Amino acid sequence: MTRTAPALLLALLLASCSSGDAKQEAAAPPPPCEAASFEGASLTHCTAEPGRHTIHMVLGPKGGEPYRSLSQLAVDRPEMSHEVAFAMNGGMFDEKGQPIGYYVEDGNRLHTLNRNEGYGNFHLLPNGVFYGDTGGHWAVRTSEDFAQSVSHRPQFGTQSGPMLVIAGKLHPRIAPDGQSLKLRNGVGVDREGNAHFVISDEPISFGRLARYFRDALDCPNALFLDGSVSSLWDPHMGRVDGGPPLGPLIVVEKRAKGKS
């Protein structure tokens, strides 16, 4: 018996370590992006959670021209940067990739709130602003509500449009299931403060995308980010969408361990 005791002890230690590893794997959080389906449409749904993620707006390298693509953002990430959970284009822009609406990056406002009337999706009023502090307290508001209610400059912000969901109701000028079908992406914030980013994997109507935010994700307010050029970078799945040149980019990073 004395000869087998060390072997038995080693087996018990290995079993204990294996059990601990299994518990750690079981406790690991799920990837931030997942496949989803709504009313027959295929989507990708990514979630940013306060305490686990930080959100940043990125236009280009400091003092440089806009990146114009997620692949360029990926290869140009500065050394010692926090790990990217996912990134998505977000916000209307001109032919040079510069924002044409409210835009704040790292607390610096590069463009004021755009409340002009005009043509196109951005001017399908009300449009809105996605904004907040880097580490949490994220929100989506109509541009008018933002102008009236937000008195301090957020750490990040981007204006786009139209709104998809406003105070729990669909945008009044969006058809329930219109004939315009395109790749589209949007963002909404749920009642728990999580930010939900959704991109369609096939052409989808405004109405269906809006209902997904309202009915499936329970987001009282949601904002259309873009269409046709909608793109996602999901490092976990090795996905980096390409296509036409982009403008402002929303980068969601994994929060460094030990940071509150």
Largest sheet: 7 strands, antiparallel
Strand % is 25-35%
Are there runs of 5+ residues with pLDDT below 50, and where? 1-14
By DSSP, the count of extended strands is 17
Compute the CA-based radius of gyration: 21 Å
Task: Describe the oligomeric state of these chains in a short phrase.
Answer: single chain
SS-based structural class? alpha+beta
Q: What is the H/E order?
A: HEEEHEEEEEHEEEEEHEEEE
Count of helical stretches: 4
Distance between the termini: 52 Å
Q: What's the rounded overall pLDDT mean?
A: 89
Helix proportion range: 10-25%
Principal-axis shape: globular
How would you characterize the overall build of this protein?
- The protein is α+β, with helices and mostly antiparallel strands and 260 residues long.
- A seven-stranded antiparallel sheet has the order 1-2-13-12-14-10-11, with helices on one face. A five-stranded antiparallel sheet has the order 3-17-4-15-16. It has a five-stranded antiparallel sheet with strand order 6-5-9-7-8.
- The chain is built from four helices and 17 strands.
- The longest helix has 23 residues.
- The N terminus is likely disordered.
